[in-house]
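--- STAGE predict ---
source: upstream dedup step, 1 unique chain passed
mode: sequence only
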Amino acid sequence: LAALTKVETMFKSYDKDKDGMLSRQEITNLAKGEFKFDMPKESLDMIFQAMVEDKAKGVKIADYQRLFCAIGVAREEAQDRLRKEAREKKESEIAEAKAGLQAKLDAVSAELKAANTAVTEVTTSVRSLPPALKEKKSDDLKKAIDESEALATKTADLIEA
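--- STAGE serialize ---
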């Protein structure tokens, strides 16, 4: 009985024109006052389509509990839309960051391949020096050593970059 009186009191507090029904504006005020929610027109249209009889001016007190639930559902749908927008924005930001990181990774991978190729060249050049010591003249040997050093310097520069 106390709960019923509370419902009637709340209903009457929003029924400003005292016609026993809540109009669109009165429902909007109810949503704002009880739920801290601005009721979208689409939700009001659905409520009126589902709860208001033809030619009636609003929702009757008998449908007050259903109205209260419908407003709660509309509020949750609105909050869900906001959460979805925030999630999609975050997903977009993550995708952009991922693309940027992938580009950096690709660049580093290319640099590593170039450095690996240079290291292979230096290794091959340096390994050819000991047998050349027996076969080559000093001028040829100095040239081979200078070439190996140049390759080693080039490789070190690639690795440092």
